[in-house]
Description:
- This protein is of the alpha+beta class.
- The chain contains 6 helices and 9 strands; from the N terminus they run ααααααβββββββββ.
- The strands form 2 sheets. Strands 2, 3, 4, 7 and 8 form a 5-stranded antiparallel beta sheet that branches.
- α2 packs across α4.
Amino acid sequence: xxxxxxxxxxxxxxxxxxxxxxxxxxxxxxxxxxxxxxxxxxxxxxxxxxxxxxxxxxxxxxxxxxxxxxxxxxxxxxxxxxxxxxxxxxxxxxxxxxxxxxxxxxxxxxxxxxxxxxxxxxxxxxxxxxxxxxxxxxxxxxxxxxxxxxxxxxxxxxxxxxxxxxxxxxxxxxxxxxxxxxxxxxxxxxxxxxx
Length: 195
């Protein structure tokens, strides 16, 4: 089960373009730029461009912003230390405050082109996210992240194909929930997964 928090915008395509329908047109335009066009066509051939463009847009739509934020917080040492302490003392919970901090999330999805069940080409995309968060308060219990309360957040995102940047959006505001409960919580350390 994947746990995420509700953000606005909620997915990378909306964060990048506002209107997710623009993703396909931006990619179609990009693969006609000299250099990009040659590289992509060499990998997929002209007949496969339309499905590759649609798949590239779907990759953006599938990247959940709340999940990317939680993935960054999951790695924060202060939260992991609190997880260890609360797992060792099951009746004790901790509140961890994170002042201004940055989360960087890099993704390299790809689209394989299949002919007769065989891969005949691969196109690699890059989705780079950077979040600047003013303040976060996290509740940790039994080694799990149980609740987050967040302040202001801005994000920068860039999207590339075969290393060529397609589009970028800098300093986009992200609306985070004031208080988000994470149900049974997200295990912050391996031992908490079994509890």
